[in-house]
Amino acid sequence: MDTMISTDPWAGAVQDIIAAGRRMDRFGWVPATAGNISRRLPDGRIAITRSGGHKGHLTADGVIEVTADGRAVRAGDRPSAETLLHCQVYEASPDVGAVLHGHSVASTVLSMMEQGDAILLSGYEVLKVFEGQQTHDTTVRLPVFDNDQDIARLSGVVAPYLGRMPAGYVIRGHGVYVWGGTMDVALARLEGLEFLLACELERRKVAR
């Protein structure tokens, strides 16, 4: 019997999020219930992971719909406290179709070691995964924002930098935010960024 492939946009977004969660879990970027994943549908609806779920074991019930300002559409659904950080990326960039947030060891440790407001990534071939980068012979600035449990306040700090962060950004001691026009692009950028952060962490270990 032929397998039926759903053409429903919502079902497609849910499957993208489930697949992304499994991939991020496989690399150890979303331990325990950490991280969140979202996708914007062509009609503007936003699908995002429900608060508290393990991203490596997502089911369709673990994905909910939120409004453009981060409120759950269905009564009783509880979005992540950081949903607003996803929504502001979508609002600032009409071409963005997916946003990923992970908590890797490298992003957490490096952002706590870094005393400045950015981690500078220079000379790596993988820098070309980020939009606008054509050569390894360049430096990409990855902003580091101090962690804040007041997400509305944190989003206000991040807002002026949107549109000027090709590699995404890091919340200090917390994790990375990366996005792209499609889920595949966002995942490629996340994988590239995590590789670079792991390289930077190794270089700092060797230099000590």
What keywords describe this structure?
208 residues; alpha+beta; L-fuculose-1-phosphate Aldolase; eight-stranded mixed sheet; 8 strands; globular
Topology, element by element:
Elements: H1 9-26, E1 36-40, E2 46-49, E3 63-66, H2 83-92, E4 98-102, H3 105-113, E5 118-122, E6 139-145, H4 151-158, E7 169-171, E8 175-180, H5 183-207
Helix pairs in contact: 3-5
Catalytic activity: 5-(methylsulfanyl)-D-ribulose 1-phosphate = 5-methylsulfanyl-2,3-dioxopentyl phosphate + H2O
GO molecular function: aldehyde-lyase activity; methylthioribulose 1-phosphate dehydratase activity; zinc ion binding
Organism: Gluconacetobacter diazotrophicus
Structure overview:
Belongs to the aldolase class II family. MtnB subfamily. The N and C termini lie far apart (61 Å). The protein has one domain: L-fuculose-1-phosphate Aldolase, CATH 3.40.225.10. It is α+β, with helices and mostly antiparallel strands and 208 residues long. The protein is built from 5 helices and 8 strands, in the order αβββαβαββαββα. The radius of gyration is 17 Å and the shape is globular. Helix 3 crosses helix 5 (183-207). It has helices spanning 9-26, 83-92, 105-113, 151-158, 183-207; strands spanning 36-40, 46-49, 63-66, 98-102, 118-122, 139-145, 169-171, 175-180. Strands 3-2-1-4-8-7-6-5 form an 8-stranded mixed sheet, with helices on both faces. A hairpin with a 3-residue loop joins strand 7 (169-171) and strand 8.
